[in-house]
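re: that complex we talked abt at group meeting.

here r the seqs, copy pasted straight from the sheet so there may be weird spacing, ignore it
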Amino acid sequence: MEIIFVGMKIFKAVKSLQDNSLRLKLEGKSIGFVPTMGYLHQGHISLIRAARKESNVVVLSIFVNPVQFSPGEDCRRYPRDFKRDCSIARNENVDIVFYPSSGQIYPQEYSSYVEVNGLSSLLCGKSRPNHFRGVATVCTKLFNIVQPDFVYFGQKDYQQAIIIRRMIKDLNMPFKIRVLPLLREESGLAMSSRNRYLSKTARENAAAIYKGLKEAKDLFKNGQRDAAKIKAMLKKKIKEIPNVRIDYVDIVDSKSLKSLSQVKKQSILAVAIWIDKIRLIDNIVF
Amino acid sequence: MEIIFVGMKIFKAVKSLQDNSLRLKLEGKSIGFVPTMGYLHQGHISLIRAARKESNVVVLSIFVNPVQFSPGEDCRRYPRDFKRDCSIARNENVDIVFYPSSGQIYPQEYSSYVEVNGLSSLLCGKSRPNHFRGVATVCTKLFNIVQPDFVYFGQKDYQQAIIIRRMIKDLNMPFKIRVLPLLREESGLAMSSRNRYLSKTARENAAAIYKGLKEAKDLFKNGQRDAAKIKAMLKKKIKEIPNVRIDYVDIVDSKSLKSLSQVKKQSILAVAIWIDKIRLIDNIVF
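got the structure back, here u go
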């Protein structure tokens, strides 16, 4: 344990954080937990604020989880700025930052994994086959270490939130999940730590995604229920962005994540694209 | 919740047991947990007694876990006698019996599984490919429901104990595992709920397994280190049992469960056989 910001503790070792959490629980303290990969933005801050409101102790984890990246992906160049993250956390009255090394989380001979079947193979799971297994596994570990009463996820990673919710229910984990709204930059681009890797032009161009999502919602409002037509409009719109490649554009059921041919209220329009090799996701709820 | 034995509570619902456990933890009580599939024998009783010694509250679960059986296996005809189990539990001063239905544990849309790679595909995992995934999953669930400080397993299911130990460590589960010695009937046959399905003759014949294991140990004591030779002796011995079929006879490392060609101290000699279609396992430590 190491204290570098007044009033906020930073833990790097699994055991010391877990012991601390078990002690807090015995004292009857409630723990709100915000798991992140760091490089915090307003979306993360909204999660921290929600945790601050309903828990005695707020724990923020910062860990770029190698197990949820595939070999060709951006694990190594995922943006990191621990000092900046700590000063944001301190400003938001976070009590504890958990900042483990990969070796702390995945020691030699590590071999246990959590899988949520079905949900994990749809949407992002198609192009990132082991991604959600990695997410479910690291979350299970972090939850066991932090011993939360509440955990907080953002709706930008809609599929992730659904999968974690399912896992918590299936495995009888003894706490509640809160899923908070997606936040957007002024241009409408969904906030993401990865946005910083977009060139100025790409960042401006990427705003077209949200414009397309809004148009899709307008089509729905005006009576359009044919998923194929709404998707075609959005794909066309996205393809106008320079250097873009579409991973998927899909309209799915909000719980099963299965593709729909008829759009209903609460259906999800979800997209994933690459711009300049940066992968972005976004979604809206009809 | 339902009370049918004075001083011992029986829970059938996940939520009521979990709430009760969380309350006990808040009160600072330690919980010792013995997960079983019921039809208790002296082996289970030794686990209960160990739990009774070191915990304030002893929880025994009785659940024949369908997910750890393959289609052709004996899930349906696995021996059950809830009343007899309860009276044994009461006698041993168990505080709480958890006796859920399959629907309580695996509700509709259930889809989350825990896997311990590597270890799960060796020995019993070869002929029972999803067995340990089912065991790891149900244990994770039961642990989250019961909130134990200590969990107890028998060494008869050596591979199971190793896998659960690995899972607890890997997933940072906040409690300790105790693995207790295998117990034997007077004949030397390893105690198992499945023994009751053996005919009188088969039960007598099955005692040859332990005789073979002891001979193997004698060979080792007399300097034999060649695993192939020890296995050949044991296989020959077992094949003399009428109506027997060998699943495996193997000498493995006590931690990695990998096959050894040279036997060492602490190596495990593990066997699985079918007699009259009843599958029996046994092992000794060199």
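couple things i noticed - Chain A has nine helices and eleven strands. Chain A touches chain B through 31 residues (CB under 8 Å).
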